[in-house]
Structures are given as structure tokens and as C-alpha cells.
Amino acid sequence: MSSSPLFRLGRLVLLFTMLIASLVSFTSAFTLILGPNEERCFFEELSPGDRMSVTFEVTQGGKLDVDFYLYSPSSNILHQTEKATSETFAFTSSENDSDTPGKNRYRYCFSNRLSSRTRKILSFTVRTDPLSRRNNQNVSRDPQLEAELNELLHGSKAIRESVRYLRVREATHRSTAESSNSRIKYWSIAQLVILLLVVVVQFVFLKRFFEVRRTV
């Protein structure tokens, strides 16, 4: 009875649902606006052995590049990237990163200090994978079930990455369209002003040309 296809399908759906729920609960997505010469920092508390990954992509502004820095709890630079459009960086928290036991408080920053006039808009996601959650996953090892689950997991990741890519491309194209519309609007206004000036000048010259001067 326990090996029936219906039971296996129900078990697979349950495991996949639990996996997706755990991924969603530990993943956060944000949109950030960086002004000229601005730097924004965020903090994340991790226990030794916890995993963390940061993925970002610049969608609007200038050359679509920012600087990214990751600092350890003792304020040492663990990772830095300059003038990056997109990147994914993952690491595992270590006891050596902090001078005090317990939670490690990491700081990651996005910087737009190299730009003096252009603001940048970027989207980033932060994913944490606690060590305690990985140790508590007591799922029985069924090779066929695990293979099917991995296939579904890879498919869901591919769909999620495709959706994120399409959102970024849509934001980039929208920014380009809005910029083009603004330029067309200002150029149309300039053409109208020039046309009015030409009409006024022509009217004045024609009026002087047909004006009859009286001689005494």
C-alpha cells in the first residue's frame, strides 16, 4: 500500500511544497534607489555554519553599474566588486569572522559614490540557509523520489531566474522608452518655439516691406 503510485505522488508533492515554502521563507527581494554619491548598507545576522547569498542587478541609471562590498562582523572586507552591473556572491558564516561568540552580524553595502549626477536603481535578493534547518531535514532517502524532486527543483529555479530576468529587461526597456519620450517631448516644444519665432520674424519683415512711407 505504501508503495502505490498515488502514495508516492502525494509524498512527492508534500516534499516539494515543504521545500518551496522553506525557500520562500528565507529569501527576500528588494528594490533600491541610490542617489548620486550615496552608499546604502544592510545587515544580516548569521550563526556559524549558516549560508548566505546576495544577488543584485542594476536596472536603471547611467552605465548600469554600482560598487558592492561585504564586511565581516569585525569590519574586514570579505568581498568587493567595483562597477558591476550584476553579480551573485555566496558564502558560509564562520566562527573566525567574529571576535565574539554567537550570532555574526555581516554588513553588505551598495555604493554609487563614483557617480556625481546620476542615480541608480537596482534590485537585489538575499537568501539565507541556516545550518540548523539543514541538520533537521530528516527526509528518507528514496533515489527515485529524490531524482524527481531534484528535477522539479531545477525546473522551479529556472522559471524563477527567467521571471527575474524578464522583470529586469522590462524595467530597462521601460526606462529607455521613458527617456526617449522625454527627449521627443522637449524637442517638439523646442520646434514649436522656433516655429513661432520664425512666424513673428516673417510677419515683421513682410509688414515693413508692404508699408507705405510718406514723403513730405
Outline of the structure:
This protein is α+β, with helices and mostly antiparallel strands and 216 residues long. It contains three helices and eight strands; from the N terminus they run αββββββββαα.
Describe this structure in words.
Residues 39-128 form the GOLD domain. Keywords: Membrane, Signal, Transmembrane, Transmembrane helix. Belongs to the EMP24/GP25L family. It contains three helices and eight strands, in the order H-E-E-E-E-E-E-E-E-H-H. The model is unreliable at 21-25 (pLDDT under 50). The protein is an alpha+beta fold and 216 residues long. The longest helix is centred in the last third of the chain and has 67 residues, at 143-209. The protein starts with a helix and ends in a 7-residue tail after the last helix. Helix 1 (5-25) packs across helix 3. It has a domain at 27-129: GOLD domain (Jelly Rolls). The protein is elongated, with a radius of gyration of 30 Å. Strand 4 (66-71) and strand 5 (77-84) form a beta hairpin. Strands 1-8-3-6 form a four-stranded antiparallel β-sheet.
